[in-house]
Design goal:
Structural class: alpha+beta
CATH topology of the largest domain: Rossmann fold
Strand order of the largest sheet: 8-10-9-11-12-16
Shape: globular
Number of helices: 18
Mean pLDDT: 86
Largest sheet: 6 strands, mixed
Low-confidence stretches: 447-474
Helix content: 40-55%
Number of strands: 18
Distance between the termini: 31 Å
């Protein structure tokens, strides 16, 4: 309690961890606060639970033998989605075993569909898979054990790549020969990815040329000196993990952050206003829209996360209606076209103070109404209260304290059971009447403390609302 003064257990996180243990130990029964957690089919159950059956192009392929188990399918999403494990450890950043798995899938399918001469990118496009291996004395690239660095299965065993690739060449190839319907579904999905890639090839080339020219003097990007994809031997891990890019709205907000930032590890990308609502559009729009194209090049995520330039991608918008709208538009962009960025924990929302409460001796920066009321009580007399509605209203000197060691970031977390297509369709689709009805039905009006005191018969339940009407959507 003296160290972690404000903490709570996140039940959904604990349950997810326990489910992973169950998937990796089929038959194990775990009783968690009266809830029984058990898996009979291992990684098949994992992939079934983390995907929507209707979104998969064919039934999940489940293969296992000795020290390896895999589950594979293809969906309709952009990017590649993996769940990888080594000796029960969830390797969220992959490593040699995941690279070997990807190579094995590509080599097996290229050989099986040899007449079609499929490209690696088209085979892996929209894949969703889980892979688990057991390795003797594994070596991880960091203390968090999120990325495997070992190259051998054990002192006397084969290399991890050889072991995984040979397993897939045998088991996956046999499965495809025995299940013609699945093989045809995979071939159809690969051909669809091939068509989509070729359709945007011309646009992509022109867009990349424009982005390359813009990078020489990109006014939107104020870059930092250290990047997440720098050579690990030359740059310390702590510095690479600290790399952050703030995506701001307009020059006013970006100006304050740019002056206050740490030029070693913090970059700023400035939007010119509200970006395009890209829900329902194809990836073609990423190349046709100059701002989106420059953003994906700044992050270096066009071909995946392997060369991601910043560990933390932070959306920094104003605390008003327009700021929230821009936040939703950016979330839509990332969730639709680069969901791996979100699933791998790289996307955040910057939390900045809403109020400054001060007198001649002390100044408090408050992130909530409660913090503001507490600050008022600590100061004598009538303090000066400033409501920050835009990031541009905060001076660079003040901003330095909000993006330094005490930075407050809210991670964007995708629930494992979330159907992104349905969520985006509801919030960003053309169903305006449905959203309007929801808002009307869930409006809650609260009166401020002064109004409650003035109106007889109104129950005052410790209202901490300032002297204005507050509308909260619940």
């Amino acid at each position: 309690m003296s160290v972690f003064k404000k903490y709570r257990f996140r039940q959904e996180y604990l349950e997810n961890q326990l489910w992973n243990y169950a998937y990796l130990n089929a038959g194990l029964k775990i009783n968690f606060n009266g809830t029984i957690i058990q898996s009979k089919n291992g990684l098949l159950d994992l992939l079934s639970r983390k995907t929507q059956a209707e979104s998969l192009r064919y039934p999940i392929i489940h293969l296992k033998n000795g020290d390896i188990e895999v589950a594979i399918s293809h969906g309709n999403h952009y990017g590649e989605q993996y769940y990888s494990f080594v000796n029960g450890q969830h390797t969220t950043q992959g490593g040699t075993h995941l690279n070997a798995f990807r190579d094995g899938v590509v080599e097996t399918m290229q050989k099986f569909f040899s007449k079609s001469n499929f490209d690696r990118k088209d085979i892996l496009a929209s894949i969703v898979a889980a892979v688990s291996i057991r390795v003797e004395e594994p070596l991880f690239e960091s203390q968090t054990k999120t990325k495997l660095g070992s190259t051998d299965m054990g002192p006397q065993g084969p290399t991890i790549r050889t072991y995984v690739v040979n397993f897939l060449k045998e088991k996956l190839d046999n499965f495809l020969h025995k299940n013609e319907d699945v093989a045809k579904a995979i071939e159809s999905r690969i051909k669809q990815s091939e068509r989509e890639r070729k359709e945007i090839a011309g646009i992509r080339q022109l867009a990349n040329q424009r982005a390359k020219k813009a990078n020489l003097h990109n006014k939107k990007l104020r870059d930092c000196r250290i990047h997440f994809n720098d050579n690990a031997k030359k740059v310390e891990e702590d510095l690479r993990k600290a790399t952050t890019i703030f995506i701001t709205e307009g020059d006013s907000a970006s100006g304050s952050i740019t002056k206050a930032r740490d030029v070693q590890t913090q970059a700023v990308f400035s939007l010119r206003g509200k970006p395009l609502n890209c829900f329902g559009l194809t990836k073609k729009v990423v190349y046709e829209n100059e701002e989106f194209n420059l953003l994906q090049h700044a992050l270096n995520i066009e071909d995946g996360l392997d060369e991601l330039r910043y560990n933390r991608v932070v959306v920094a918008t104003d605390a008003d209606v327009d700021g929230m709208h821009i936040r939703l538009l950016l979330l839509t962009f990332f969730l639709q076209f680069f969901p791996d960025l979100v699933r791998n924990g790289h996307l955040y929302i910057l939390d900045t103070p809403l109020f400054r409460v001060r007198d001649k001796q002390k100044t408090f920066y408050c992130y909530s109404e409660k913090e503001k009321q507490d600050a008022i009580k600590k100061l004598k007399g009538k303090p000066e209260i400033t409501r920050f509605k835009g990031l541009g209203e905060i001076s660079p000197d003040e901003f330095g304290g909000f993006i330094g060691e005490n930075i407050r970031l809210d991670p964007v977390v995708v629930n494992e059971n979330a159907d992104l297509d349905k969520i985006l369709a509801y919030y960003m689709g053309k169903n305006t009447p449905d959203r309007q009805d929801f808002i009307i039905e869930n409006l809650r009006f609260e009166l401020d403390k002064a109004e409650v005191e003035e109106k007889p018969g109104v129950n005052n339940q410790e209202s901490e609302i300032e002297k204005e009407q507050v509308v909260e959507i619940i």
